[in-house]
Amino acid sequence: MERATEVAAAVESSVDSLVAVLERARLAQQPTIPPAQLRVLSIVEGNRHTNMSRLAEALDVVPSSASRLCDRLEATGLLRRVADPRDRREVRLLLTPASRRLLADLRDRRREALTEVLDRMPPSARQDLLRALQAFESAATVRDEPESDRQTA
User: Fold this and answer.
1) How far out from the chain centre does Cα 80 lie?
2) Which of 59, 64, 124, 147 is most buried, judged by most C-beta within 10 A?
3) Which spans in the chain are helix H?
4) C-beta of residue 41 within 8 angstroms of C-beta of residue 79
């Protein structure tokens, strides 16, 4: 059996290949959206109550940097800022119909690109990959237990 470090190296290499496939799909999209702006749209899509401070925290940037990203997205019609009805001092960030279409198109392009690669794999290897990815996801989402709990378990 391979050592965990050998498996980690293989996973890292595979992730590089995966990122390359996804990046080609992003670059084929028109208009091309820079990765930082795409990340903003994805964060806003994932949380309908995103405001500027939550966005800056999610991006791990200062609020002024987040605001500049939003300025660019708003100028291209991909993001709207509106006063939060619960607290008029807060500004909520909302996707526009154009950004929703862009994200849906990008997801479709990515899935097509991934499907092309997966179709070149034998069916049994695809099943093995699916099981391995599910196991990886499960292991990655386990919360860290205190050392003392692991020793007594």
Assistant:
1) 21
2) 59
3) 4-28, 35-46, 52-59, 63-75, 97-119, 123-141, 147-152
4) yes
Q: Where are the domains of the chain?
A: 14-119
List the structure tokens of 28.
């084929």
Q: Is the peptide bond before 31 cis (omega within 30 degrees of 0)?
A: yes
Q: What is the pLDDT of residues 50-88, one digit of tens each?
A: 999 999 999 999 999 999 999 999 999 999 999 888 887
Identify the three-state secondary structure at position 93.
strand
> Which amino acid type is present at position 55?
L
Q: What is the pLDDT of residues 106-146, one digit of tens each?
A: 999 999 999 999 999 999 999 999 999 999 999 998 765 55
Residue range 14-119, CATH number: 1.10.10.10
Kindly tell me the burial class for residue 72, based on how many C-beta atoms sit within 10 Å of its own C-beta (0-12, 13-18, 19 or more).
middle
